[in-house]
Design a protein that fits this description.
Chain A: Belongs to the TCP-1 chaperonin family. The complex is a heterodimer of chains A (542) and B (552). Helices cover 52% and strands 17% of the residues of chain A. Chain A has 542 residues and is of the alpha+beta class. In chain A, the strands form six sheets. In chain A, strands 7-12-11-8-9-10 form a six-stranded mixed sheet. In chain A, strands 4-14-17 form a three-stranded antiparallel sheet, sandwiched between helices. Chain A has a three-stranded mixed sheet with strand order 5-13-6. Classes of the chains: A alpha+beta (542), B alpha/beta (552).
Chain lengths: 542, 552
Amino acid sequence: MAISLLNPKAEVARAAQALAINISAAKGIQDVMKSNLGPKGTVKMLVSGAGDIKITKDGNVLLHEMQIQHPTASLIARASTAQDDSTGDGTTSTVLVIGELLKQADIYIAEGLHPRILAEGFDQARTKALEVLDKIKIPVEINKENLTDVCRTSLRTKVHQKLADLLTDVCVDAVLALKQGDKPIDLHMIELMEMQHKTETDTSLIRGNISTKIIIANAGLVLDHGSRHPDMPKSLRNCYILTCNVSLEYEKSEVNSGFFYKTAEEREKMVVAEREFIDQRVRKIIALKKSLCDGKDKTFVVINQKGIDPISLDMLAKEGIMALRRAKRRNMERLALACGGDAVNSFDDLSESCLGYAGHVYEHVLGENKYTFVEECKVPQSVTILMKGPNKHTLIQIKDAIRDGLRAINNTIEDKALIPGAGAFEVTANKELLKFKDTVKGKVRLGIAAYAEALLGIPKTLAVNSGFDVQDTIVKLQEESRLSPDPIGLDLTSGEPIVPKDLGIFDNYIVKKQIINSCTIIASNLLLVDEIMRAGMSSLKG
Amino acid sequence: MNSKGILTLQFGHYSNFIGTHWWNIQEQGFDYTSHSEIDHDVLYREGVTNKHGVTFTPRLLLVDLKGSLKHLPERGELYDEPPKPTKSDVNWDSDLVEIEGVSGNNKNQFLKDLENPEESHKVLTKTYDLEKDVTVWSDFLYSRFHPRTVTVINEYQHENEHTPFDAFPLGKDLWNSSSFEDDFSNKIRSYVEECDYFQGFHLLSDCTDAFSGLSAGCMEHLEDDYCRKSILAFPVVPSFFPDSKFETKEQQCHAIINESVRVLNLALSFNAFNAHSSLFVPLCMGSKGWRQPGPKNEFNHTVYDSELAYHSSAILAAALDTFTLKHRLKSSSFSLVDLCADLSHNGRKAAAASLCMPFSFNVDANLLECLDNWEGPLTKSITPNCTIGSDRLMQYVILRGIREDRLKQQADRAEKQRNLPAYKCDSITEMLSLYLSYSTHATINNVTVVRKPLDVKTPFPRIFDEFIGQAGYVGATPRPGHINVESVPVMAGLHSGSGVGDMLESLYTEARRIKYPRFHQFINAGIDKDEYEACLESLLTLRENYMDNYYI
């Protein structure tokens, strides 16, 4: 072996031993994650040594928290991360399916089947499973009802049912507000804003299952800062909104620095001249405000991406203009979408057409944080979801859930189709694959059988997590599936077979597709590994 | 909030060591009276907690890897009580919630005392065995942070050999991952938004590992979004790497490879600093910096262990606190822009720093006598591979902790001193300027004098020898054992001159020698050979800016 000649210290594991390492690792992380799957799975609360809390049920987050050192396990973890990046859901399922595939493979390999034949079977099974997926997918119209169904299914696996239903409405409303014809939706146009309220007073008011109140600022935007001048108005109605990216802040120029000016007077003169330049900009804003608002029932708000210094703020405040500095870049886009108008980069040709409009702009102060609400906009194509919670970790948990919900809705809009949930796809694919197996000649069919069995891992785990007998449930499901023309899923409250479509339980097409593809590839690759080497850094890096 | 705020950014573990010392030093020296020379509002901010408590916390953002904070909660303890893990706020059936805790870290005695209201006021004068107790920077953290301050990188773990965070492009990629950039740039924005006259950024970054890439990404962002604000950057190199203590042949190979990786990171990061900062000043307590940190920088009357990050970072923090004083004074309108502009003429973006700690000043001496007897340069370079020299420089020198009444002998007892030309000087600034103008050639000197010495009470390490007294002056007899040094006079400087060019040349030569294609972790992460070559070329161009023989 070449490597052991070059580096006698390299650790090598071969053939059966290598496979055993891979399989046990895959099974190992499958065991850790199993209990988290589905609406009856457990939630983990991770407490760090310093007392930081993280609440999660998401397979991907857990994998990262576990700090996996094992190379095989980290390969699986990466597949699950990829799943999260591309679809936002199904991370736990990915781990479970890979684990299950290897577990089934292990049985056959123990009987002497060559891994390559298994891998080939897996590949054929994958093609077939994708066919089944296409067959059972239900083309849907994009309407509130359908989106609500898929979003609710996804969210109920992340947060408590009551909260999930509330969040579902919020997410669906947000996406529908943004949707314009067939144009793809930019989820960045939905701002998620956290507001942590005073612990003692507020929690006592809203204890119970939902310790969080969520408001959707549907008609506009919430900015996480306010005006920085004591005399500026705190609330305005009928506002023109000027969004701009122009510095209103005097900055010393470099020629004006240290070594070159010996006396303070000399410097002051320079400063005054340079200051005038900024003042002119401010006067332009004031002139526009005067021409538009004076004598009418209109007010003026400036939202600037650059800075505004106290002198400029003072000039604006005297005119009753509300001015915000250092707005988030993305909020500039959002403001243009929500209020109309354009963000201007210079004040050279400032006119009414650049301005947006909002019915009500007001400030809200919470501790040292200020928030500015921009509401009653002309064309609300941008939305802020405001989350209130008593502590950071709950807020983060809700934020994660909302993100996933939004992704689920967006996936549906892009797929224009849904898959019946509650394990229906797995049960159906199992049935179809077993049929397909009989048409295939040779040992490859064993690979297909293993694949079919592995898919059942999902409904099995769902059953275990809900406290039902596995064999009982699976037999019932398979029987019912044979008789019924519709895909059959598992009712987690009764343990009986159901038609998920009738109950509005749906999954995303793209999520399932991605799971089938990536799990098959990872599992096959792991099976085909016949040697694992761990060599010192000196031989690999140098 | 009417002052000229500066936002400090710290990237990496060693930078955080330095930063921790720096904030500790400042908080010990807080002077709430109106005649304080230093304007604390420049680096600190006033805030209000949700319970209406007023806070005064560093205007600071720091980044470190997961697992490096030990007992310090990410959001600090100042604003929220550390939350109790209760199942009821999980939003899930509470019988389906599992609580998984990592075993709590034991706090050291210093931190325990700090928490205890009865002990906390004594902490500054008590003696602890921090040399042994300190493994991470939060072990000796005296300041308390705003909840926004700490950012933890969850993707990589502290001191993890399997997935090390060791290559420039890894940091760059991390910055570009949308969640990190969004979150971090939003934190920057929140700090900047609240400042009325924002000056710019102090940026400390480890530049031997992937934090260099992270800070490079951050600087690009700062340049885009805060285009006219200055960025004063301090790339830092630890003075000791554990892998340099090898025993076996294999460990030696390991060490050599790691050294090369560090040089690559340094080269790439210096290039980034050159492109995006207003001025950068590399700092290291080893005199060489690369490939090995080299022999440690020695100071008179100072005994320290360069293998302890706790020690070496304290000295760098003292320097940092001193040479940034000029733009933090209440009395002057000198700002960060001025400093950066003055020291970076002709594209000389790199500068050197120097330090003399303690500034050797006898208990009964005066400055005239002290300078008259001084041998060699006043300060020593703390920039690796850089001899500052005394020829054709632009330099800022700051002296703190010497009172004006110690300037010279009184006229009636002056004797020989009267004959010296320096006897005519009426202030320390004047005398020091005079001294510098005689001891340097073709140099622009700028001297700043601050009354306040550097506070070195616990948790600053006890690194001064027995001849340094309580107030930091050199005595003839050893200081009694029960008395500790509480403050010291310090001199520090920032210099731009041809010596900096030599530093760049040495880095260029080292980086040139490395066979880049063998370092697949850099290439895989997207910096190919051509890009690396381009980086070396621009280092060379920067180096040429320091060649002044062309003009003569």
